[in-house]
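Quick start: what a row looks like.
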Amino acid sequence: MNVIKKENHQTHSIIVKRKAVVGLTGLLLVLWVLIFIPVWNVAYWQGWAFFLAFSVPVTIISFYFLNHDLRLIETRVKAGPIAEKEIKQKIIQTFAGFFFICVILFPGIDHRFGWSNVSLFLSIFGDILVILGLCIVFFVFRENTYASGTIEVNKEQNVVQTGPYSIVRHPMYSGAFVMLVGTPLALGSWWGLIFVFLLFIIIIWRLFDEEMFLLKNLPGYTSYCQKVRFRLIPFIW
């Protein structure tokens, strides 16, 4: 019986890892297409710099948790509108996905027609913000194995109050905000920030809905909110 359970566990692990690798490969291919197709020219150094600034950390993070926290990977591969259970969250995730695509896609159009003039320094600074945002997400994942891609509470889940969660209640969104602000700048576009602003609104909508869910379903979350006052930005909000 133990041998069968072990074999089933190994088979399950292989399936999860395979899904994660396929998903990562698909993400990077789609990302490349979204960056370069609107420009219709691979001589777009901002695009290559951003692609590396995003894809290298994401790949490192993915393979780190494939080896150290497969539970986290399993919950993260289930994401997006289809994976959500509530209709409201399906709507939120649909808008979030659309605006995220626009954040990546529109700077290429901007670059092709020369609408923005972003300096070399600001583009590099944007890449640094992208890397910094992903680093924050990495520390969030390392601290919280239940950082699911959907809004849910696991039976074994406890309130995480350490690491970045001791500073703000939603550090993963904080990291995402840093990354998103850096993205249009890295790609050389001022106009792309419009879609970042729209995406911020959607994420904050999701944040409030998530907090209401956690207050009802996660024991200890109410006292945690009283202890950690700030949601996204330390000492501000």
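That is the whole record. The mean pLDDT is 89. Residues 2-36 form the longest helix (35 residues).
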